[in-house]
Amino acid sequence: MALKYKLILASGSPRRVDLLNQAGIEPSRLMPMDIDETPKKSEHPRSLARRLSGEKAEAALAAIKGDITWKGSYILSADTVVAVGRRILGKAEFADEASNSLHLLSGRNHMVYTGICLITPDRKVRQKIVETKVRFKRLSSFEIENYIASGQWRGKAGAYGVQGLAGTFVQKMVGSYTNVVGLPLYETILLLTGEGFDVHSRWPEG
Ligand SMILES: Cc1cn([C@H]2C[C@H](O)[C@@H](COP(=O)(O)OP(=O)(O)OP(=O)(O)O)O2)c(=O)[nH]c1=O
């Protein structure tokens, strides 16, 4: 069946592509957007997730402006922020930063906010912020050291990836798991179908 709409995923995150694929959607194009992700002074983590997801989608829209191939396509973006209270734990650049982040998360609750932004073919902007509460067990220095050695913290908010070894750190989670991995599937599909994107006609037949 010919698909009615094209979808641009304004992201370079392999996790987001995997999650969309899991939902039976193959983006027509991947557009990683290099935006400044620095939080503003006293910006709430929720507001940051909202602002950055919006900026990624708007940057992709600006980049395809005037290109007839992508006229009438949907643009989807997301941004995931990990926070302890109002304290934002960004992507660690070095091992010692990642270690600090994990020490902070150890034995505590934290929040994961993912902002999703959808720009429709008629260029309406729709946003949704999804929250998940995560509790990590108390981590020993030995566990943290070994986790750091695995390298799985690289490129991930809060310096961990729940879909990998850090899944063993999670004592409790309230809310969406896929939200923590980087794209809340239930809410994303709801947003897409609500805006007329043909999600279910893309599902494979067995
Ligand atoms: C908390 C957590 C985050 N992550 C990832 C998801 C995101 O890729 C990343 C958060 O950074 P983001 O800035 O949201 O995304 P990104 O820079 O990786 O990709 P893009 O902006 O191009 O879409 O952390 C996991 O993979 N697992 C986790 O458990």
From TrEMBL:
Reactions performed catalytically: UTP + H2O = UMP + diphosphate + H(+); dTTP + H2O = dTMP + diphosphate + H(+)
Record's subcellular location: Cytoplasm
Alphabetic keyword roster: Cytoplasm, Hydrolase, Nucleotide metabolism
Coiled coil start-end: none
KW NAD (keyword) present: no
Group of enzyme by EC: hydrolase
Biological role: Nucleoside triphosphate pyrophosphatase that hydrolyzes dTTP and UTP. May have a dual role in cell division arrest and in preventing the incorporation of modified nucleotides into cellular nucleic acids.
Name of protein: dTTP/UTP pyrophosphatase
